[in-house]
Amino acid sequence: MHTNPVVETPAGVVRGLRDGSGERYRAIPYAAAPTGATRFAPPAPHRGWRGVRDGTLPSPTVPQPARDFGRLDMIPYFGPGWVRGEEYLTVDIHTPAAVSGARPVMVFVHGGGFVTGSTRAALYDGSAFARDGVVLVTVNYRLGIQGFLDLPGAAPNRGLLDVIAALGWVRDTIPVFGGDSANVTIFGQSAGATLTGALLATPEAKGLFRRAIIQSGSGTGAFTPEQARRVTTAAAAALGVEPTAEAFAAIPDERLLAILPALSGLDLRTGTAMDPLVGLSPFSLVLPVQPADGLADGPAADVDLLIGTNTEEGRLYLVPQGNLDASTEADAFAAAARAHADPSTVIARHRAERPDATPGELRAAVLGEALFEAGTARMAQAHARISGGRTHVYSFGYRSKALDGRLGAAHTVELPFVFDIADKPWLHGDTALLGPDPAPADLATRMHDAWIAFAATVDPGWDPDVVRVFGG
């Protein structure tokens, strides 16, 4: 029988759980609960607590809508949705042992289109990291209107500010959980990867991490201020209030979630910018320049980077909904027109590369490139220039046979391999992320080990001038 471990942090004492992989501490606040007007303010320090805090139960989650992904079971990715409670700016920690050991620390930032996700998602099980000597920290951050709507009078990019605050908490606190605060790797997937890339260009992030991993994000995924104003104007109109932080502060979270459908489908193309999220989310970072073009402002030159994408990212947005077969040439063109000023040339290029592709396959290729591949390539190139060749690139090509064999190497499919949980039964079946087939025997081991080796030693197992292919 395992006894529950107890750790004394600067904010107070917390009790966790011990299991075969190490110790787990859940729902530890890194900032004060954002309520009322403070939902639109920068994260504030937590005041701490008296007595022993129960770190054995999961955290409330950030207010978020339910997500339906057609036939594909994405609950392991999105988690339980909105679990109510004020204190949701929290971290979960999985550590080999909360004793001095100066172990590598990895801080994970979840995805979910800037509107959903949490530390409670089953895919982010840190057992394998703790088993292999790493302290894993997973982070909740504000989402949607509370996290990313650009409002006059509100702090911009509040979700990003939350991640920075969590990294500051890690720097100050992680040694008591057995981690080395001088050896922190931040890694994220999808929206979390885009946030990770933005940190590389953020002056306030200097000194908070030594390495970064960007999984299926984009160095060009931010909105311009003009694009953000369109979303703010639509949100204010849907609520019937002025577009100011003061007006929004009086609106309860339930109402803010209720208007999200009114923000979908906005045309964010302007005279100077296309829609970097191709209509899939009305929220992103709001920046004057894209992260890939602003690396000189942040810690990027001193940070080692591991970065890559999946080979069929865009299929996630078509296959589960039945739209791969239903797509027409006009649908493929419309997707290209959201992301490119010259969509005809883009379609012709993709057609030349895939002469036998169906309209749906063309549309998926256009989506994958626009959402992830182009922005990842630009970030990798920019980082290699500024860092003197400290950039490792990977490509993930394992094709899930989910949904009648059609999901492929879609967005999110790499996550079970990174977390070394690809053998979990709930990931298998025709409507599960990895499909009915058993996962390749060694792919999770190779990918997980590469991530850990990068965090521990900077060397993931291949040279910076080589693209490492996993599962392709």
Provide an overview of this structure.
This protein is of the alpha/beta class and 472 residues long. The chain has a single domain, classed as Alpha/Beta hydrolase fold, catalytic domain (Rossmann fold), CATH 3.40.50. Helix content is 31%, strand content 15%. It has helices at residues 75-78, 127-131, 144-148, 158-173, 191-199, 225-239, 245-249, 253-258, 260-263, 323-326, 329-339, 343-353, 359-387, 402-405, 415-418, 443-457, and strands at 6-9, 12-15, 17-19, 22-29, 52-54, 90-95, 103-109, 135-139, 179-189, 211-215, 304-310, 391-396, 467-470. Strands 3-4-6-8-7-9-10-11-12-13 form a ten-stranded mixed β-sheet, with helices on both faces. The longest helix has 29 residues, at 359-387. The protein is globular, with a radius of gyration of 21 Å. The model has no long low-confidence stretch (mean pLDDT 96).
Quote the CATH topology: Rossmann fold
SSE order, one letter for each helix or strand: EEEEEHEEHEHHEHEHHHHEHHHHEHHHE
Overall tally of structural domains: 1
Please give the largest β-sheet: 10 strands, mixed
* Mean pLDDT rating: 96
What fraction, in percent, of the residue positions are helical? Answer: 25-40%
- Work out the helix count: 16
Outline: globular
The assigned CATH architecture is 3-Layer(aba) Sandwich
The neighbouring-strand order within the major sheet is 3-4-6-8-7-9-10-11-12-13
Q: Which ranges are low-confidence, i.e. pLDDT below 50, for 5 or more consecutive residues?
A: none
CATH superfamily: Alpha/Beta hydrolase fold, catalytic domain
So what's the CATH class?
Alpha Beta
Topology, number of strands: 13
The share of residues in extended strands comes to 15-25%
The radius of gyration over CA amounts to 21 Å
Distance between the termini: 43 Å
Provide the structure class: alpha/beta
